[in-house]
Amino acid sequence: MATTAVRPARATTGPPKKRRSAGRILLGGILVTACAFASAAITLRTEGPAGAIAVLADLPAGHTLAAEDLRAVKGTVDAEVIPAGEAAEVIGKRLTVPLVAGSLLTRGNVGEPAYPAPGQALLGVAVKHGQYPPDIVPGDRVTVAAIPDLATPAGGTGPETAVAVVSRIRHPDQPQNPAVVTLQLSQSDAEKVAVSAARGLVSLMQISPEAS
Predict the structure, then answer these.
(1) How distant, in Å, are the alpha carbons of 74, 113, 149 from that of 58?
(2) Most buried among 1, 6, 50, 136, by the most CB within 10 A?
(3) From CA 207, how far away is CA 165, in angstroms rounded?
(4) Buried-state track 158-173, b at ≥16 Cβ within 10 A, e below 16
(5) Average pLDDT rounded to a whole number, residues 56-62
(6) What predicted TM-score, i.e. pTM, was given to this entire model?
């Protein structure tokens, strides 16, 4: 009599499935946590500084701030941004730079405007090595002397001169390049030496702070 072989039933693999399920749950939890952190980071980046002061409209440099120019915004402020709690202290102060609507007030853009007073002028001069004292700094007083242009016939008067105060100085990055010095002086004196300054034909001489 023929016998039929019975194949043993394949054992089920229950425990590995549970391990895979547990692994998927763990991976899902990690992804959810990562998404939560990413969402929080995006929220922090897009939130504007809180407790700060913003301007409501475009304002020019020199504008005197009034209460109706300002509004408080929420967020965290750094050391440079003026907090909303100091709003009363900026009323009546002037902007040093123009601001567009929504800009935050910082300590650097409130104060005296960065342009000259009436009757004064800012004149930029490019001076090469040997045409200015290399150690001059903002606040120093200098005499600006026009260097005679050899291509122009000499007249009966001497070179034009003017007394100025150094406002800013940008030293050259290469020895062969000129330094650019911004000078504050009277408008009439600026007009006397402006042509020579534009040609690079001026020399600066440092003088005593008490010199008239």
Answers:
(1) 20, 16, 46
(2) 136
(3) 10
(4) eebebbbebbebeeee
(5) 84
(6) 0.48
Which distant-in-sequence residues (6+ apart) come within 8 Å of 108 by Cβ? Answer: 80, 96
Dihedral sign from CA coordinates of 35, 37, 40, 45: negative
Q: How far is CA 87 from CA 74, 80, 82, 107, 174, in A?
A: 14, 14, 8, 12, 45
Reading phi first (left if > 0) and then psi (alpha if -120 to 50, else beta), residue 139 is in: left
Angle at 47 between CA 44 and CA 51, to 5 degrees: 115
What value does the mean pLDDT take over residues 68-76?
87
Identity of the residue numbered 162: A
The strands making up 141-146's β-sheet, listed across from edge to edge, are 120-127, 179-186, 161-170, 141-146, 202-207
Nearest to 65 by CA among 94, 88, 103: 94
Are 82 and 110 in contact by the 8 Å Cβ rule? The answer is yes
Q: Which residues contact 2 (CB under 8 A, 6 or more apart)?
A: none
CB 178, CB 108: distance < 8 Å: no
Dihedral angle, C-alpha 37, 41, 46, 52, nearest 10 °: 120
Q: Are 70 and 93 in contact (CB under 8 A)?
A: no
